Amino acid sequence: MNKEEKQVRVYADGVYDMFHYGHARQLEQCKKLFPNTYLIVGVCSQEDVEKFKGKSVMDGYQRTESVKHCKWADEVVYPAPWIIDEKFLNDHQIDYVAHDDIPYQTADVDDAYALCKKLGKFKATKRTEGISTTDIIGKILKDRHKYLKRNIERGMSRQELGMGFWEYFQLKYDWLFCQRRKRKQD
N or C terminus: which one in the chain shows less Cβ crowding within 10 Å? Predict the structure, then answer.
């Protein structure tokens, strides 16, 4: 690195629930915006997530730890503000905020990043098509019984799975029946 290259402090924020390769690619884009980027990643508080987006799969600690282990993040801030203000930008000496360019309507504002755009401190990133936490949760819910059977086979109790007696019995009995049939065929 050339000593004359100024370090550019870039901030990216998000919920980062069920941290996946789309999140990692977003942070990679942010890290590569400038030759000498210091990437600060804000993880939104559990309270804000539940208030503005709904229940998350992972809690704040788990989401933060996932981001801390991403090679692109130099620093992680938790809890991060839902809406960025000038005080936050100044306190963290942020040069740019990076996020996808779609106006993010939330908390009675038309665009959560409007201030950063107005100040000329916004850099757009591109979303990774084909992956999102919502899609992952949808896939799990669609194949719910397959995942429940899988965990029953691994010895989880109905209480651990949050299942009623009859549903658990039906899935476990079906699994046992299939196991017996398989043994008879062998």
Answer: C
